UniProtKB/TrEMBL annotation:
Family designation: Belongs to the MICOS complex subunit Mic10 family.
Location relative to the cell: Mitochondrion inner membrane
Protein name per UniProt: MICOS complex subunit Mic10
Function (record text): Component of the MICOS complex, a large protein complex of the mitochondrial inner membrane that plays crucial roles in the maintenance of crista junctions, inner membrane architecture, and formation of contact sites to the outer membrane.
Organism ancestry: Eukaryota, Viridiplantae, Streptophyta, Embryophyta, Tracheophyta
Pfam family, one: DUF543
Transmembrane helix found in the keyword field: yes
Membrane topology according to the record: Single-pass membrane protein
Record-linked InterPro entries: Mic10 (IPR007512)
Keyword terms of this UniProt record: Membrane, Mitochondrion, Mitochondrion inner membrane, Transmembrane, Transmembrane helix
GO terms under cellular component: MICOS complex
Main location: mitochondrion
Amino acid sequence: MTGEKSDIIMPKYDLGAKWDACVDLTARRFVYASVAGTFGGLLFFRSPVTRWAAVAFGAGIGMGSAYTECSQKFDGFPTKFPPAVPKEGQE
């Protein structure tokens, strides 16, 4: 096939790659934050209920941060601070 470029998808529009990256990011952050919550719960708390709460809190932080970054990848959620616009006379 000479000169066909229909198979090449720009990274901006490659939804399959974005979904793969988001699933990977979510799984990693969920596991890492849950492990951090487990160690924190074992280190700071005696009661099993508070230890499980620390694990759940860590898992929630991991899922929330993954959701925020994935929504930015899909351009559906604006960043918290807009880019700085230079004032007149400043470059």
